[in-house]
Please model this.
Amino acid sequence: MKLSNKAYDVIKVICLIVLPALVVLITVAGGLCGLSDEAIKTATGTITGIATALGGLVGISSAAYWGEHKDELPVEDPPEPVARIYLSPSEQSANKYAVGHTDEATQCKKIAAACAAALTARNFKVILEPDVAVVDRVKIDKDSIDWYIPIHTNAFDGKVTGTRLMCRSAGDVVDKTMAEFILHRVDALCPGTSSNISYWGDQWFEQRETKPVPNVYIEAEFHDVPETAQFIIDHTTEIGEAIARGICDFYDVAW
Model:
């Protein structure tokens, strides 16, 4: 049922102004005019019921109108994101895990997906293109992102464990601070015993090619050690969320 514009406006005024004013008038002046409490209660209850019914009629009419004019509904601008984060999971499928018949690319895509979900839920804009080659990821418009964060797992001699984060240089204070927040969260979760932040200048392709965008290169545990490889496989969601928590800590965003 859809009311005419004039009927809609008249009923709306009656509901919002006339009937509430009448209830107040009867409540205040009824006793002075000799009405009993029961009579006042009956009158105000009746008027309230009428207002409720008319309000329902207005609501039905409004829903019918907007159902026919969906394209005219006001669209609110989305809130500004806290930051724009590009997550770049490893594409190194040749790096096999010590257990699980899996590889670095497979597990890092899972970690990145979990990280993206956690950040998106907290009003970060996340760009995640796991099927795009790294050589093309680094071509992203540098002005469109605030951080470029590669996500990898590590390998060395089958014995070393721990989380390693790499920055371009110790002079990149913003990068270093973000790395410290992320390392704190990931190292607290992972079982490895040799975790640190190191500085490699422009040695790593994804850091060199994304300058000057801030960049923290993450190596979350070693996959050539059976115990830590199994840990990664079993905790991809938790590792991704730990990375996200570190990013949230940097921006002082509540978890």
User: Anything to note?
Assistant: The helical segments are 5-29, 37-68, 104-120, 134-137, 173-189, 205-208, 226-234, 236-250. The radius of gyration is 31 Å. The longest strand covers residues 147-154. Strands lie at 84-89, 125-128, 147-154, 164-167, 196-199, 217-222.
